[in-house]
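Last lecture ended with a question: if I hand you only a sequence, what can you say about the shape of the protein? Today we answer it with a concrete record. The protein is Glycosyltransferase family 25 protein. Below, first the input exactly as provided, then the predicted structure, then a couple of comments.
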Amino acid sequence: MLNPIRVISLDRTPERFTMFQKFNFHLPIQRVSACEGGEIKKEEYIESGIFSGDLEYSVGAMGIAVSHIRLWQEAVSENSVRHVAEDDAIIRNDFYQIFAEADVAIKGWDIFLWGYNDDWPVGLSSYFKAVVSLEGKAHSQDFISGNYSSFQLEERKPSFLPLASAAGIGLYSVSPQGAQKLLDKCLPLANHKAKYAKDTSVSWSNTGLDVEMSRHYEDMNAYLSFPPMALMINDMENSTIRGSNIFK
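The predicted structure:
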């Protein structure tokens, strides 16, 4: 039996999961109730070592961080890979076939990032610890909604590129050892700035878990799927997580 994709979705927005099911009916999925950020007692998470005392994430960003962290902990405790999706992802039909090929081809992988924000530069690890950046073309929600079926039927094999930096965690696979590394490296969550891929001398403000994860990709066996295996509608107006990233 296939290991289902865990889909993080808030109980109070069932329409988002319903839409996910519509777009991805061909895949085995398991809904995971997202942590409601507004109900978080921050002091408890500080005491447990999840948050630093000076963490400045919004309540939504705290909630989504806790939701992902719980799945990392589960991957470690059950010694099992976790495929994790947010509820605005549209995923290719052949995801499991591509994952199985990558799992065999790349020994000791920690994380595969299958879907990422196309309105933000991606950083790839090059020689001599250099980072080279890729820039995509941001697709509108209407474009993706109107063309998702042809995307899902795409059969071109993606390449797996050594990952240094990316925004968004719409779909990723994490191994048990990768999950442990993320727990060790990311916690307690603080506001340590990341490097901006287009110019690594520029700081990228750490306003959410995807930025925190991006800080550590270079030090992990992390890979990016290119082209992506998942597209995100990424509708900021209706986002239940957080607003856009900024520089400081």
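Comments.
1. The longest helix spans residues 59-78.
2. The helical segments are 14-23, 42-47, 59-78, 95-105, 141-152, 176-186, 209-214.
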